[in-house]
Amino acid sequence: MLRTIRAGLRHLRRECGRYHASGGVRLRCAARTTAGTLRVIGGSVLREGEIFAGYVIQRALGHGGTGAVYLARHPRLPRWVALKLLKRELFSDSDSAARFEREADVVAGLDHPGIVTVFDRGVEGDQRWISMPYIDGVDASSLGPAVLSAEQAIWVIGQVAEALDYAHGVGVLHRDVKPGNILLAQANGQIERVLLADFGIARLRDDTRNLTHTGEINATLAFASPEQITAAAVDSRADQYSLACTLYWLLSGQAPFGSGNPAAVIKGHLQDRPPAVRGLRPDLPPALDTVLAQALAKRPQERFASCSELAAAAWQSLATSGAAQIHADDVAPRASVAAVLPAAQPRSAMPGPVWQGLDRPAGTSSPNTGAVHRRALIGIGFLLTIVIGVGAGVAAGMFTESSHSKATSSRVTMSAQAPDPADQKIYDEWRGSLDAMSAAFPGMVQPAGSGGKHGYLNAECLPAAGFHAGHSSPQRIAMKDWLADWDCAGGDGEAAFNIYSYRSPAAVQAVVDALPANEKSMDLKDGKTYTNYRYFTTDNGFDYANLMTTFPGDPQRRNFILLVGPKMSGRDKMDKIVSWWQAAPIG
Q1: Global model pTM greater than 0.85
Q2: 298 a known binding residue?
Q3: Which sequence positions are flagged as catalytic?
C-alpha cells in the first residue's frame, strides 16, 4: 500500500514539474488516492495553483447542485476556462456514464451564437469534468425593472428566444429557462451579446432522481411549466412557458406566481390566472398582459407556436401602444448593471447591441479570455443537464439556484436553503394522489410523464392541486376538501370528466351530503356495482347534467370521486353522459 502511494506521489511530482518548467510559476498539485478519488493536499477543495486534468486552478468560482466550478488555465491554449467537477452520484451506474459519452457526440453538432459553448469534457480517475469559457458580464437575475426598461427586457427575451428556437429545431429542450441562466456578456463596459446557459439541467436529475418516488421538481419552481411540475411529457412549449415567466420577472422584479410558500407557487402554475404585470408596472400596455397570458396558458396547445413568436408579440404590444419609443438595439440600461453586483464577484462575456453603463466596480478584474470560441457545444438531455450553474454569475453555464435568491429552486424550495418539511410533505402527498388515481383508473388516466394524450378517448388530462382553499371554479368549490384532481377535457367522446382524490372516505361522503337535489342509483357495469348520483347544476344561467360515481366498497378507490359532465349545457344531456359512463373503462 505504501509503495503504491509513494509511486503515485512521484508521478504527481513529475507532472507538477512539467507545469513548473513550462509556466515558470510555482504550483501546488492535488494528490490522488489509490481509488482514483481526488484528494487535495491541505484542504478539501482544489486550491490556487493545483492541477486537475492538466488545468491549472486559479480559484474557486462556486458550487451548486451538480458540482463545483473553478477558474482555471487551459493546459495548452492561452485562455482561461470555467472548469466544473461533477458530483459522482450523478453517474451512479454504467448506463448514465455511457449516456454522458453518447450524448456528448450529439451535442457537438449544435452551433448558435446565443448558446453557451462547452470546450471539453472528460474523466480523471472517477471524477467527470467539463470545461467552458469564462464569461465576463452578468446574469439576468442581477437585473430587473430598476435596471432594464421594458424595451430592453423584451430585447433580451428575443435573443434568448432565437437560441431556444434553434435548439428546439434540432430536438433539444432547455428545461430550466430562468433569469439566472441568461448571460449578458460585456467587454469594455458594454453589453456585447446575450447567451443562454445550462441547457437540459432537468434531464440529468430526471435520470438520477425519480420524480414519482421522491417528489423532486427538476426545474426552478418559480419558472417551471405545469408539465414539468406534474412530470407530464414536455416539448418546446414548456421552455416557452418558462421564458414568459422570465419576461414577467424582468418586467416586474418577481415571478408571476412568486410566493414564499412553494405549495402556493405550484397551485399558481397549475390553476391560477397569471396576475396582470400592469399591477406591478402601470406604465406597461394592457396588450402585454394578453401576450403573457397566452404564453402562460396551462394547456401547451394554447401557447404561441414558438418562442420567437412570443417575443415578437411582446415587442408588438409595446410598439402598437406607443410604449416603445426607440428600437431595442439602441436602448441603454437605466443604471449600471455592474453596480447591482457585489464588487468582489467575477463577472460573465458576449456580442449583440451596444448598451452603455456596464463599468466594472473599482478593484475588480478578470483574466484575459482571448477570443471566445463561438461554436456552441451544448448538450441534449444528459450532458446539457450537467452544465448546471454555480456561483453568482461567473462562467458560461455556471449559475446556481442560489444566484437567483427569490426564485423557487428544485425540490419544492425557492432558494438554496432546505425545503420546509411541511411543504414537501404536501407536495409529495399530492403527487402520490395523482399516481394513485392513474393506477386505480388505468383506462381513464395514464400516468404523468407517459407522453401523448393522458385520458380516455384522447382526452387531455391536466392535474390540479387543492393545497389551499380558493379553488378556481364553482365545481371545484363544491367538491370541498379535495387533495388532487385529474381534469380531463377534449378528446373524442361526448363528455368531460374529473377524478378527485380525498384524504378519507369521510371527506368523500361530505361532498355527497352537500349535493343538490339528486337521484341516487346502484348501477351494474362489467360485473361490478357502482354508486351513482345524477344531478344538475346551473352556471351563468345554463343547466349542466352531472353524474358522480363513488366507490365506498373498494379499498383502492374509496377516497376517489369520478365526476362526468357533458361538453355542452342542457338538461337533455343526462342520457348522453350516462351512455358515456356505461362505455368508459372505469373498472
Answers
A1: no
A2: no
A3: 176
